[in-house]
Amino acid sequence: MKDGDGHLEAHIGEPSPFVDMVVGPGESDNGRFGGLLERLRWKAGLSRADAATKLGFSSEYLRLMEVGKRTPALGQMRNVLSAYGAVGAVEEISPQGYRQDLLVFDPGDGDDGDPTVVEFTSRIREARRSALGGLPDDDSQQTAYERPAASRAAELGMVVSLLTRADDATLRKVRKFLETGSRQADPPP
């Protein structure tokens, strides 16, 4: 991508600095985001029970999301947008080259034409970002990690993707292997 001066953007894949809300476990914007989800549901003309059925959630879980006590995973947002007939996009790259988790037009904002930009946090995403060379979210630690080679980054991404689909027994085996199995595989000095 090129900026207005024709220079290649250096932001490809970086989180967007133009974020309106950050949501996830313990985030302060969860309540605002829940209100946005509720407005989208109302605009779609859906009761909480009907929306929960369409989304495969319980009505109580949807209520907890709408009051900010729970947040959906980013991966669920395509289904939410679709079920509510909402205008938005999930995991798109902005014209400036920034990665944007969720763009959604808030029906309560009137016709200002600007989408709400939402960034999602989770332990899995933060681990992935650290593994791919990002800075940790803890501002007290200022050391950047070495960026792994592209092939290693792709391999790490594939492993994390596979682990998200693994059952509990498989996860325990992988953890045990990583903690002890790889040391047993090394020949003695």
TrEMBL record:
Give the domain of life. Answer: Bacteria
Q: What InterPro entries is this protein classified in?
A: Cro/C1-type_HTH, Lambda_DNA-bd_dom_sf
What SUPFAM superfamilies does the record point to? lambda repressor-like DNA-binding domains
In residue numbers, the region (Disordered) covers: 129-149
Q: Which residues form the HTH cro/C1-type domain?
A: 37-93
Q: What is this protein called?
A: Helix-turn-helix transcriptional regulator
Q: Which organism is it from?
A: Streptomyces castrisilvae
